[in-house]
């Protein structure tokens, strides 16, 4: 060890960096960067053919059926994110503000709301698939039990309700996480700042509006960016519950399922082979959207960075 | 005072109603796991006739659940060991060793926080194929560990920078090599941060279905989430068994949370709040 150390001398940092750089470079940076290259070529199965320029992007954006599916999936992702964002920032913040007061039973409620987060999305998907089964699932039976039987319907089986059901199930699974993060953010705010506002005569609402929330803005931004990245890549829940074509009638198709289907073929259509070039173009487009929005979000966050 | 009391009653009623929304499906899952399929149809909401553990034993042995469980433990465990080693060494260099371009190295790692590795799945798939790692656990371990690097380096570097630099210098003057200073002095000090990194990474890896779905074909190599999907198709007529399998699949993380909730919460919120 001693000799190795002397030999490395001023290059010793290389020995410390090497394993991490190789691992991360080979299995993360290289594949992500090559996706860009893949999207510019024609592919026959997994074999690369001629240079295609931007033709794959043209196909995704302008040629049906790809363009139709792409726009549809994009719309679903936007709805997915918007609804999740609204639920998270209202309910998540509300519960975090409540749980900040240490009152009897609040520890239990906090744990209760968090528990679904520990379940795998596969379990969440199957659980709700069973609960929402139109024939004998618990949810419709419950509606009948409380006299709302006329509301009972095949929630996941009709295009009108399927996507919203899945978004709500996703929110059910995730809500505990933003509560936790908001709660941690609130606890990092020094008590004096809020007390000072109260002493100066601000009421509870004014203190919240003008002191607490602005101080919480960076945490809120961080939760929003993380939610955005996750929601643009959502896949599991739809795959488990509705299959890779996002049924019924593509009403729950997301960019994630669209990408998967294009890249690896679709079992529902008899397993046609994947289209690597077009799928890579979809991945690059997703990548660009995530990167652009995250970058913008971080720029905005830095503008609002507060010191306390 | 009276309106205050009324508010309190309303508040607790609301919180309880929400708790029912969050817990009832889970309670139903657990209770149903003890029932026979016949019982599920006859008496969907009632308590089971007997609380025998037999359905769990059946899932464990008959549905190769024990194999899936072992695979999950091995894959997440090995990925954690790999990412903890690589990330703590790299972070030590970035935070403590003077060298040119270390801001760039730091940025190189941080850039990955914003991009999920699944967007690179096609080249990754071909790479694994060329390395002959498809249908082995190594494909999962390398992918998980690599994708865990950005967040881990970010958390560990921040933590290492908050430690006094004199510790390393003192160790060096006392005759430690750089590796010894790292191994004997620094690593014990960053144990809390290593626990945080472990928790941040463990949860998504344990629950992941995406990469096993694409990398793993052999049944004996499947992890729990992927095993569950097979299981679901196979036993769709035996609802009782399905629910038992779901309960078994969920137990480890729920138990981890309940036992270690303080550390668990600290781990999950670490990156988001300071970031």
UniProtKB/TrEMBL annotation, chain A:
Chain ranges passing through the membrane: 12-33, 78-99, 111-131, 171-190, 211-230, 276-298
Sections of the chain in a coiled coil: none
Protein origin, superkingdom: Bacteria
Alphabetical list of Gene3D superfamilies matching this protein: MetI-like (1.10.3720.10)
InterPro entries, sorted: MetI-like (IPR000515), MetI-like_sf (IPR035906), UgpAE/MalFG_permease (IPR050809)
PROSITE patterns in the record: ABC_TM1
Family affiliation: Belongs to the binding-protein-dependent transport system permease family.
Protein's UniProt name: Sugar ABC transporter permease
UniProtKB/TrEMBL annotation, chain B:
Pfam families in the cross-refs: BPD_transp_1
Annotated membrane topology: Multi-pass membrane protein
SUPFAM superfamilies: MetI-like
Keywords: Cell membrane, Membrane, Transmembrane, Transmembrane helix, Transport
Domain ABC transmembrane type-1: 69-260
Alphabetized CDD domains for the sequence: TM_PBP2
Cellular compartments annotated: Cell membrane
Domain of life according to the entry: Bacteria
Transmembrane segments: 9-34, 73-95, 104-126, 138-160, 181-206, 239-259
Family: Belongs to the binding-protein-dependent transport system permease family.
Record-given protein name: Carbohydrate ABC transporter permease
């Amino acid at each position: 060890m001693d000799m190795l150390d002397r030999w490395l001398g001023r290059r010793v940092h290389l020995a410390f960096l090497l394993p991490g750089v190789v691992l991360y470079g080979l299995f993360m940076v290289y594949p992500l960067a090559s996706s860009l290259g893949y999207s510019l070529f024609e592919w026959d199965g997994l074999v690369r053919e001629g240079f295609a320029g931007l033709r794959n992007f043209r196909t995704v954006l302008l040629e049906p059926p790809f363009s139709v599916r792409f726009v549809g999936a994009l719309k679903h992702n936007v709805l997915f994110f918007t609804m999740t964002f609204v639920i998270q920032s209202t309910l998540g913040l509300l519960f975090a503000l409540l749980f900040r007061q240490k009152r009897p039973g609040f520890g239990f409620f906090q744990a209760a709301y968090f528990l679904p987060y520990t379940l795998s999305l596969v379990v969440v998907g199957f659980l709700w698939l069973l609960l929402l089964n139109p024939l004998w699932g618990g949810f419709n039976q419950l509606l009948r039990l409380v006299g709302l039987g006329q509301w009972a319907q095949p929630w996941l089986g009709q295009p009108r309700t399927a996507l919203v059901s899945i978004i709500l199930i996703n929110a059910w699974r995730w809500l505990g996480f933003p509560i936790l993060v908001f709660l941690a953010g609130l606890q990092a705010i020094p008590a004096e700042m809020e007390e000072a506002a109260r002493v100066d005569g601000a009421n509870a609402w004014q203190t919240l509006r003008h002191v607490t929330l602005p101080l919480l803005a960076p945490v809120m931004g961080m939760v929003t960016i993380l939610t955005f990245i996750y929601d643009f890549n959502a896949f599991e829940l739809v795959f488990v519950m509705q299959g890779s074509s996002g049924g019924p009638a593509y009403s729950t198709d997301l960019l994630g399922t669209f990408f998967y289907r294009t890249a690896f073929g679709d079992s529902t259509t008899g397993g046609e082979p994947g289209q690597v070039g077009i799928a890579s173009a979809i991945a690059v487009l997703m990548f660009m959207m995530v990167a652009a929005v995250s970058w913008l979000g971080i720029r905005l966050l830095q503008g609002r960075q507060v010191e306390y | 005072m009276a309106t205050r009391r009324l508010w309190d009653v309303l508040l607790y009623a609301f919180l309880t109603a929400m708790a029912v929304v969050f817990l009832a499906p889970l309670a139903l899952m657990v209770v149903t796991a003890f029932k026979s399929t016949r019982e599920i149809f006859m008496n969907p909401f009632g308590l089971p006739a007997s609380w025998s553990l037999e359905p769990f034993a059946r899932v464990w042995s008959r549905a190769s659940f024990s194999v899936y469980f072992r695979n999950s433990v091995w894959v997440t465990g090995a990925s954690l060991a790999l990412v903890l080693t690589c990330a703590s060494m790299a972070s030590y260099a970035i935070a403590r060793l003077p060298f040119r371009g270390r801001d760039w190295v730091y940025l190189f790692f941080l850039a990955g926080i914003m991009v999920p590795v699944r967007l690179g799945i096609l080249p990754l798939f071909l790479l694994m194929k060329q390395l002959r790692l498809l249908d082995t656990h190594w494909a999962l371990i390398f992918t998980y560990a690599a994708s865990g690097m950005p967040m881990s380096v970010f958390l560990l570097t921040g933590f290492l920078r908050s430690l006094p630099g004199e510790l390393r210098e003192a160790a060096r003057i006392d005759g430690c090599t750089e590796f010894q200073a790292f191994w004997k002095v620094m690593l014990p000090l960053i144990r809390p941060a290593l626990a945080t990194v472990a928790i941040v990474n463990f949860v998504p890896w344990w629950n992941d279905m995406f990469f096993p779905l694409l990398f793993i074909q052999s049944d004996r190599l499947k992890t729990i989430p992927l095993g569950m999907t097979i299981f679901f198709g196979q036993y769709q007529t035996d609802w009782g068994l399905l629910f038992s399998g779901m309960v078994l699949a969920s137990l480890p993380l729920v138990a981890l949370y309940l036992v270690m909730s303080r550390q668990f919460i600290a781990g999950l919120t670490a990156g988001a709040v300071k970031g």
